[in-house]
Design brief:
There is one protein chain. By secondary structure, the chain is an alpha+beta fold. The chain folds into 2 domains: 68 residues, Orthogonal Bundle (Helix Hairpins), CATH 1.10.287; 149 residues, Heat Shock Protein 90 (2-Layer Sandwich). 46% of the residues lie in helices and 21% in strands. It is built from 6 helices and 9 strands, in the order E-H-H-E-H-E-E-H-E-E-E-H-E-E-H. A hairpin with a 2-residue loop joins strand 5 and strand 6. The N terminus and C terminus are likely disordered.
């Protein structure tokens, strides 16, 4: 197994960011032209089965490059994005959108996607497009790094002051020693099982930054050869402690942690009282 980690020094970061932004933008126009030419091939005459196969393969590779370009652009925007676009959102349509974006690939690989919602409410304070990107990326990885005839399970539940979303797959898993690095910039783990899966190593770094932009947290648990579970915690729209919300209605992470600590201490106190 070979580890790739193209880290950059802090003083080089701004230059790298600018280069990524320039290259990503410059790639968009030729990619759009290639996509248009592939779409127009059928207008020049009916394609035989072999030609159709090649055209479809070409379009799949255009889609793959487009995904990497989008990751580069999202990564380059992270430090410059402001707080506009946030509003009260329902998480369910965001997850449904993510499922719709990976359903074709899942069907081709005969992977079943299941959704379980046990949350009392799925309303959150969020930027819908940014959170859609989070779900698409996590679900895309869950499908791409899965096995044929595998499963992807999305579970939504209340977790104290958080809304918890688990994306679990039955895929190839991640070695334990690599888990602390999976959210690092430009980090990828290569193995025989994943050697044909393309990517920039930016997807999960972008996801982590976007989750944190929502005052949330993301973590991963994985067993090699068994599968991985990515857990996203997003602050629920608070039913208590309204004073801990800022002027736009978002609860601070410190207040959430304080409330969670108080709840834990109260439960422990009640448990001790019961034992007396």
């Amino acid at each position: 197994m070979v580890e790739q980690n193209h880290g950059v020094e802090a003083e080089e970061y701004d230059d790298v960011l600018e280069i990524l932004n320039i290259f990503a933008h410059d790639l968009k126009n030729p990619l759009g032209a290639i996509r248009s030419f592939i779409d127009l091939m059928g207008n020049a005459g009916e394609l035989n089965e072999r030609q159709t196969h090649f055209a479809n393969r070409a379009m799949m590779n255009v889609d793959r490059i487009q995904q990497m370009v989008n990751e580069l652009l999202d990564y380059a925007r992270l430090d410059y994005s402001d707080e506009t676009g946030f509003d009260i959102c329902d998480l369910m349509p965001i997850i449904d959108y993510g499922i719709s974006m990976v359903q074709d690939l899942a069907s081709r690989r005969q992977i079943q996607i299941a959704l379980h919602n046990a949350a009392a409410s799925t309303s959150i304070w969020a930027h819908q497009r940014l959170l859609q990107h989070v779900m698409v990326n996590l679900l895309s990885n869950a499908v791409k790094y899965n096995r044929r005839n595998g499963t992807v399970t999305i579970s939504i539940d209340d977790d104290g002051p958080y809304l918890r979303v688990d994306v679990a797959d039955s895929g190839i898993g991640i070695p334990a020693e690599k888990l602390p690095k999976v959210f690092d910039r430009f980090f990828r783990v290569h193995s025989d099982a994943s050697q044909n899966i393309e990517g920039t190593g930016l997807g999960l770094a972008v996801v982590k930054a976007l989750v944190e932009k929502h005052n949330g947290r993301i973590s991963v648990q994985s067993t090699l050869g068994v599968g991985s579970t990515f857990t996203v915690l997003l602050p629920s729209l608070g039913q208590t402690a309204p004073a801990s919300y800022d002027s736009e209605g978002r609860e601070s992470l410190d207040a959430i942690d304080d409330n969670a600590q108080e709840s834990q201490e109260q439960r422990e106190s009640e448990s001790d009282a019961d034992d007396v």
